[in-house]
Specification:
Blueprint: H1 3-9, H2 21-26, H3 31-46, H4 58-67, H5 74-81, H6 86-91
Helix pairs in contact: 4-5
Length: 92
């Protein structure tokens, strides 16, 4: 095969390449945790309350992730939930 053929058959980005900090954490979770995190993100996105009345927030999710040993900041979670992280640049 030619170099061009090889390049065309290779994925654009290897799995995990340029993944945001949130996805780096997400990728090491088991399937049940991944499902629960996905549901949590939907809860955050759908919680239209403001300020302290908000039940689900990126701060809430970051605290939970840190409490079980993951090194992640609120801003990393927020960027991913708001689709403003490097994952979105990879998709485009």
């Amino acid at each position: 095969m030619s170099a061009l053929s090889d390049a065309l058959k290779a994925p654009r980005h290897p799995a995990g390449a340029n993944a945001c900090k949130f996805m780096q954490v997400f990728n090491v979770l088991d399937e049940e945790d991944k499902t629960n995190i996905g549901e949590s993100i939907l809860l955050i996105r759908n919680d239209i309350s403001m300020g302290k009345s908000k039940q689900y927030s990126t701060s809430w999710l970051a605290k939970i992730l840190r409490s079980v040993g993951h090194d992640i900041s609120v801003s990393s979670v927020q960027r991913h939930v708001n689709k403003e992280c490097s994952c979105e640049r990879i998709i485009k």
